[in-house]
Amino acid sequence: MQDHKVNSAKRKKSGIPALLALIFVIMLLAGCGNNSAADSGAGNGAAQTNAAEATPSPSPEVEPAVAEAAEATSYPLVVQDELGHEVTLNTAPTKVFAPYMEDSLVVLGVKPVGQWSNKGQGQQYLQDQLAGVPLVDFTSGLPSPEVVMAMQPDLIVLHNSYYAENGVYEQYSKIAPTYVFQQAAGDLDSSLTILGDLLGKQEEAAKGLADYRKKVEEAKTTLAPHIQDKKALIIRFNSRGMFLMGGVYGGFVLAEELGITKSDLVAAENSVELSLEVLPQIDADYIFLANDTANTGESFYKELTESALWKSIPAVQAGKVYDVDDRYWLGGGIVAYSNVIDDVLEILAP
């Protein structure tokens, strides 16, 4: 455009008095500059960002993220999963089996062909959105290839690498293309974005994440005066015992999303078995208790909360112990994490 302006000025200069030529060049430069801004705004991300800043929007975080995801997935699609397997999708999947990732599927507006369940119960906080989706029992481990095959999935997604062990990946991948995450709940931005890419639901993924990020930032602002120099700890109870939860599920929300420091006991661990002898080492200012929904951990819960050592913990004496709903505190996804944030706000900043 700059070359065009110079050449135009030369063509116009002959036969025109110098002063008029100068004025004309100045006007031409100004007009061409405006046209350049308009042209680049149609296809340049920076120009679009500037335009968005100049025009106030009710949801400034949402629109750029959604715009970036506007280009739809083209099939056939060939990708590598997080364990290095090559995954090929010839067409957009319509029959998805992604056990324990139903939360993310709900955000994307996708109903799976089957949903994770334990002892006949799916993730209760999602059942309104998963009405009619058959339960697939994980009580004794992953379902057999025959059970999975009967659902006729055209994409299988395993939410952590543990699910792929002991020959499971090899068996499932013969049924349908199978994508494996290392730990989907540990990086929600990445896992939801990848799932959106696989399913051709990039716009839904981007909007869901943008809305969630806005909620996180607003919660951090509200909680800031209540969590400064404070530590938090989640204790989980089930039929196998008591466990300190680290940086996954509700622990991920507390530490990584809301910025509440983890207890030193789980600083480098996702889960640590808890015994009464460890109680004097608990350094948390806030303690959250997540008992198994079916109360299979009730005996351990009573053993802990009725012990003299428990009652001597400073957080217990200060009344900073809170029972929470394990159905989403131990869930992984935007819906679960949003519910955890709501609980924390209600508890710490009522």
TrEMBL record:
> Pfam families in the record, alphabetically?
Peripla_BP_2
Q: Cross-referenced SUPFAM superfamilies, in alphabetical order?
A: Helical backbone' metal receptor (SSF53807)
Signal as UniProt keyword: yes
PROSITE patterns referenced in this protein's UniProt entry, alphabetically: FE_B12_PBP, PROKAR_LIPOPROTEIN
Q: Where does the record place the Fe/B12 periplasmic-binding domain?
A: 93-350
Which keywords appear in this protein's UniProt record, sorted alphabetically?
Signal, Transport
**In terms of one coarse class, where is the protein primarily found?**
other
Q: Where are the transmembrane segments?
A: none
- Where does the signal peptide begin and end? 1-37
Q: Where in the cell is it found?
A: Cell envelope
- Tell me the protein's name: ABC transporter substrate-binding protein
What is the species listed in this Swiss-Prot or TrEMBL entry? Paenibacillus phytohabitans
